[in-house]
Specification:
This protein is an alpha+beta fold. The protein contains 10 helices and 25 strands. Strands 9, 11, 13, 15, 16, 18, 19, 20 and 21 form a 9-stranded antiparallel β-sheet that branches. Helix 1 packs across helix 3, helix 5 packs across helix 6 and helix 8 crosses helix 10. The radius of gyration is 23 Å and the shape is elongated. The protein starts with a helix and ends in an 8-residue tail after the last helix.
Length: 430
């Protein structure tokens, strides 16, 4: 079935489905399910439930159908090298498209399980937060994890922190420049936040830390849940500037309209991007924050960050620290898309999933993840349902370096088949 899954994934990659632009994929999936004698329900926020007419499955499989579009995406051209699938100069969308391709194979085979496809997960778990679908299932297997051989039993909660401030015009210094940091590695702001991946905004801020400058404009970062790869700033400087290893400096032959921007730049310098505290219990970051997006235009500055924590208490703490930092530099603040942590738990369902994982991989382990799976949000809507999360090995999601291990896809599909079989749901199989 692995080849069939890959074929379906490639077909999915040709349908644009960036967050907030998923209508074409929704219609494709709806038609695909209807043609295979499934019922399709769509709620007011475009979550999709696919099920058999008289289905009373114990199990629901769940994934999101939007993707983070980086680089040339949604124009995705896939290729395979050394057992891994990549996309040329774009994010791949294996997060979470490979899960959808697995579901398509199961629908093709008539599996009597419920399929839940949530909308706009990548921009704040929007679909899961407002879900209105009625389920029969007692168990939900989320397919958004990114490490084979592991059963995920908990995840971080998160929030987006926003700040803005208006700055007055200022007298320009002698020299005008465009300074930039471009094409850094990037990565996922949760599962890769501990890897010390350079943040383009912080690299530029640190470069300017000991220099007298006034800013004309600044635009940096791509997505709130991605470590920034690019930033471009136009400024006037009191001194001559030189390029460094990561910072490109271009002298401009023009006078710029600049602003009294010290508080903006000083906030970027003071901001502690990355892991704030570490959890020895789970051997992963406990709290973290990503300095994600900055914009400065016509004197109006805005900053967007994403915070994460393995507990609701930890989330409150890191939010409070960073909101105070914003306010210290005169920024007005707000919070968007706050979602709860999923407290780790081993139960009867996670044991079934773990047994299926051992059957395929000969070993398995439980882990929690420092990222925002939808399980925590869905658990608030379905408190009597038990959750677990698994998935194929995906590296560097939310970046142009995203790749998926191809043989991992087939293995995880067989684990899903094992879970369906263990729960006794009707399934013809391969």
């Amino acid at each position: 079935m692995q080849n069939r899954i890959i074929e379906y994934f490639i077909s999915l990659s040709k349908i644009p489905h960036c967050s907030e632009s998923t209508h074409k994929l929704l219609e494709f999936l709806k038609l695909f399910a209807l043609e295979r004698d499934y019922i399709v329900e769509i709620d007011s926020v475009n979550n999709i439930l696919i099920k058999k007419e008289k289905g009373e499955s114990k199990l629901a499989l769940q994934a999101h159908y939007d993707m983070v579009c980086m680089g040339k995406a949604p124009n995705i051209e896939t290729y395979v090298e050394d057992g891994w699938m990549y996309a040329k100069e774009s994010s791949l969308g294996a997060d979470n498209g490979m899960a959808i391709a697995m579901m398509m194979v199961l629908m093709e085979q008539g599996a009597d399980v419920e399929f839940i496809l949530t909308s706009d997960e990548e921009i704040g778990l929007i679909g899961a937060s407002a879900i209105e679908l009625e389920l029969s299932a007692s168990y939900i297997l989320n397919l958004d994890f990114e490490d084979e051989g592991i059963v995920c039993i908990g995840c971080a909660g998160g929030a987006d922190l926003l700040g803005e401030q208006k700055f007055e015009k200022a007298e320009a210094y002698e020299y005008s420049y465009e300074v930039s940091v471009l094409d850094l590695e990037g990565g996922h702001s949760g599962v890769e936040i501990h890897k010390n991946i350079p943040n383009a905004i912080k690299v530029l801020a640190d470069y300017l830390a000991d220099k007298s400058v006034k800013i004309a404009s600044c635009h940096g970062g791509e997505r709130r849940n991605s470590i920034p790869t690019n930033v471009v700033m136009r400024l006037s400087s009191q001194e001559l500037l030189q390029s460094s290893d990561l910072v490109n400096v271009k002298l401009l032959d023009e006078s710029l309209e600049v602003y009294e921007s010290d508080e903006f730049l000083n906030l970027l310098i003071a901001f502690k991007h990355g892991v704030a505290t570490y959890s020895e219990e789970f051997n992963l970051p406990d709290t973290s924050i990503n300095l994600a997006i900055v914009n400065f235009e016509n004197g109006m500055a805005s900053i967007e960050c994403s915070s994460r924590a393995m507990s609701d208490e930890g989330l409150e703490e890191i939010n409070e620290v960073n909101l105070k930092l914003f306010e210290q530099y005169g920024f007005k603040t707000s919070i968007e898309y706050k979602y709860p942590a999923w407290k780790p738990e081993i139960n009867s369902f996670t044991s079934i999933v773990n047994d299926a994982m051992i059957e395929e991989f000969k070993e398995s382990r439980y882990e929690a993840i420092h990222a925002g799976l939808e399980c925590g949000v869905l658990l608030e809507h379905y408190p009597n349902i038990k959750f677990a999360s698994i998935g194929p090995t995906i590296v560097s999601p939310h970046s142009t370096h995203e790749k998926v291990k191809i043989d991992s896809v087939g293995k995880i599909f067989r684990v899903v088949e094992g879970v369906i079989s263990a729960l006794g749901d009707s399934y013809a199989g391969s």
